[in-house]
Amino acid sequence: MFALLVNLLSGRYVATRYNDRDVAEWPPHPARLFSALVASWAENEPDSPQGIEELRALEWLEAQPAPNVVADVIPEGARAGRRTVSTVFVPVNDAGVVQQPENQRTELAEAVAELATADGNARPRAEKAVKKAAEALAKRTAAAIAPSPKPSPGTIHEALSLLPEGRKRQGRTFPSITPSTPQVELRWEQATLPQNLDAPMRRLLARVIRLGHSSSFVDVRIVEEAARPPLERTYKPSPSGTCTLRWISAGQTARLLAYHDEHSQVEPRVCACAFASYEVGEVRSHAPVVESLFDSQWLVLARVSGPRFPISSVVGVARQLNRAMQSVLGAHVPELLSGHRNTGEPSELAHAAIVPLPFVGSPHADGGILGIGVILPRGADDDQRAAVMRSIARLSDDDGQLRLLLGDSGQLILERVGWELPKQRTLWSETWTRPATEWVTATPIALDVNPGNLHDPDPTKRARAFSEAEESVRLAAERIGLPRPASVEVSRSVLLPGAAKPRSYPRFPISKDRPQRVLVHARLLFSQPVAGPVLLGAGRYTGLGLCRPVAQGEGS
Fold it and tell me: Taking residues 452-479, what's their average pLDDT?
């Protein structure tokens, strides 16, 4: 077996699909890597003895069949790992004043080609045609580059556009993928790299610094057996496959060099490739993923209009929606929604969580509530689920919009998210549920037990209070079916951009007849991947204790 491991050093992969510049390519197409290898060869004395050895390694690789591709699992359009694409207007590098004599170049090339095949009486005529075409090209070039004694306003405007402050701007997009495990493996199961090509191949790989966009830094190396990510998917070449990836065929190095000479790094180009059909394998898990007792499939209501509430309003917004849902069901409110038995006593079973979804985790996050998730426990039966769905349907008008009355604050208009994902990743359930070993609170946890004074001036008492708070968080994780965290960090401040300090939240619970809970933020590390949603503490059914997964390569 011959295998190459591509490490995404920046934690992300920036490249567009060859046929759609607004969509990120995933997995990386093998032809991209081969092009990067050819570039690293051509830039480093290709005619030297070492360069000739490296060319032999390229020729060996281009003769191999399409490889298996092993990559992280990122469903189409459904992962927080896909960055929302925005158009950026940037100065172009191809502005110019001199008009290129393309017609004369073409005529000269055609004349030279005709001369190469001419013989006998036709040769003098072909030589004359080459001389005439060369003179025409020289004359046209001289005229194009000659200074104008009286430049027109248009020529002056074009000349000024070459200066940095005057360069024209064109729209560009930079689609990006941030996989949970920033690695991709290309595997040729039946190939064995000849011993004499091992050193040249490793030299080539060591000089590859990017794949795709110039910001997509990589490290590429030969591996015997790559470390497996928690979840992976293998793409295998198959004539009946439904996925198309680009690979190459014999002679690819020569074709790439010819194309490079043709476009001179200026003309638009699509590099030569061979389109290979791939079958998409099943998701494979190499580490057990533990799920919480809450279902990963949510009903999400996106904010359409009305007040945009701050993150500290999650409990109030959640309570209002819960009351509205119960009100339309009359006397037939299921225990799943009310959280109480028919006798009025609190339910001992997990029930529906109404979770406002705040904009957090991004450098520009402001904590505003962008929508609400209705999350059911995994064990809910079909009748109870149907009742919850029925309540949402009854609250919605003919256009599918739900109007939530919020007293003096006005009316919040919500709309159920359907098959098409919204632009805001906050409203993707996968943003809050993807497997990870590290989880950070977006909203603070209401501790089940008072740990003591976290602000105590006595260092010993304060340390004891923090220790009690950490233990309370561990028990909260176990209470929703998760393993005991390997470590817990409790904080009185925020741990995610856009989040708010615990002291910014109103008293919880609201009723003064019940003891007030202590609110804390926390970072939890598990020894194995955990799938969300992760809702912790006494306020987990009303938006408190909402955690967000932090993947490798992603800032918290």
Answer: 94
